[in-house]
Amino acid sequence: MSSLARMIDANLNRSSEGLRVLEDAARFHLDSLELCSACKSARHGLRQLADELAASGPAFDRLARLASRDTPGDVGTEVSTESEMARHSMSELAAAAGARTAEALRVLEESAKLAGSVAAAQRAKSLRYEVYEVSRRILVALGTGRARQWSLCVLVTENLCKGRPWTDVVTQAMDGGADCIQLREKDLDDRELLDRARWLVGIARPRGVSVIVNDRADIALAAGADGVHVGQDDMPIAQIRAMAGSRLLVGVSTTNMDQAREAASLGADVCGVGPMFPTTTKHKPQISGPAYLAAYLADPATTRVPHLAIGGIGPENVRQLAAAGCRGIAVSSCVCSADDPAEVCRVLRRELEAALNLR
């Protein structure tokens, strides 16, 4: 029985370690009390599993397991792969921890059967499904792990371009320092929208500029865009993830902290934060204002998610936002309607960066 005791001991430890990693990701990265509590509940279930295994025979109580442990003589400690030693994001870290925990619980389930404990086997099985779910929720909340904090996103709509070709506005915006272009066309047919999105990806990607499609995850996927941006009444994040997985960054418009916290918990890669000021581009019955931006940046649950302040922003007020800590803005008419879109973008970038450097 000593080999079985060693197997049980090792996998109880693996399960505990994996759950601790998941809990710390929920605690320190996501700042989620709900997910922390779910991890703690699973760890409590693991302690109950250990007790049930101990009750199945004296060879499986804690002291017997410790006595049977032989770390120096364990051949498994010398086996490793390159991938084990590389983690590139919090998502990868949590995914590895969740998989390791579930694998260990499956071993415990089978070991409990061999030890003759039906109760422990059932407990391990139930706990494994519990870990599947909490791991899923944490990974969803972590998003793609590829989010960027853009400085200047220009929302391009043809009817705001004052007769100038929208393609010229895009080119000039990128010349002026826009690091993200969002295609925002509500009235085009699908084929035209797809053609425009593909053209935009073709010209922007070689320059390192991100392309986002407004509302339409299907068009964003077909065009090879970097992401999609949705409003509160558009396709939910969960449905976009089911369709696109990690292939698309997902941006979400928010007007208050409740919406922002929900977007963050569901794995938004970026949040539109606004409206900051009155705007003629899109009527908003209520202005959230810079105070909302300050609250977003101060809240641990949301500040980790890149932001784009939006709504009525121009060269005359961008410093006010930067003084509050704003690191990214989204603009539309002040660039699309400008006589010199490139120069407006240069001024916006300069004003934003100058104010940030003074903080």
Condensed summary:
This protein has helices at residues 2-29, 33-55, 62-68, 90-115, 118-142, 166-175, 190-204, 217-223, 237-244, 257-265, 290-298, 300-303, 318-323, 333-336, 341-358, and strands at residues 152-156, 180-183, 210-214, 227-230, 249-254, 270-273, 307-310, 329-331. By secondary structure, it is α/β, with parallel strands linked by helices.
Report on the structure:
This protein is α/β, with parallel strands linked by helices. The protein is built from 15 helices and eight strands. The protein has helices spanning 2-29, 33-55, 62-68, 90-115, 118-142, 166-175, 190-204, 217-223, 237-244, 257-265, 290-298, 300-303, 318-323, 333-336, 341-358, and strands at residues 152-156, 180-183, 210-214, 227-230, 249-254, 270-273, 307-310, 329-331. It is elongated. The protein starts with a helix and ends with a helix. 44% of the residues are buried.
List the helices and strands and how they pair.
Blueprint: H1 2-29, H2 33-55, H3 62-68, H4 90-115, H5 118-142, E1 152-156, H6 166-175, E2 180-183, H7 190-204, E3 210-214, H8 217-223, E4 227-230, H9 237-244, E5 249-254, H10 257-265, E6 270-273, H11 290-298, H12 300-303, E7 307-310, H13 318-323, E8 329-331, H14 333-336, H15 341-358
Parallel strand pairs: 1-2, 1-8, 2-3, 3-4, 4-5, 5-6, 6-7, 7-8
Helix pairs in contact: 1-2, 1-3, 1-4, 2-5, 4-5, 6-15, 7-8
Q: Descriptors for this entry?
A:
single chain, 2 domains, Ferritin, TIM Barrel, alpha/beta, 8-stranded parallel beta barrel, 15 helices, 359 residues
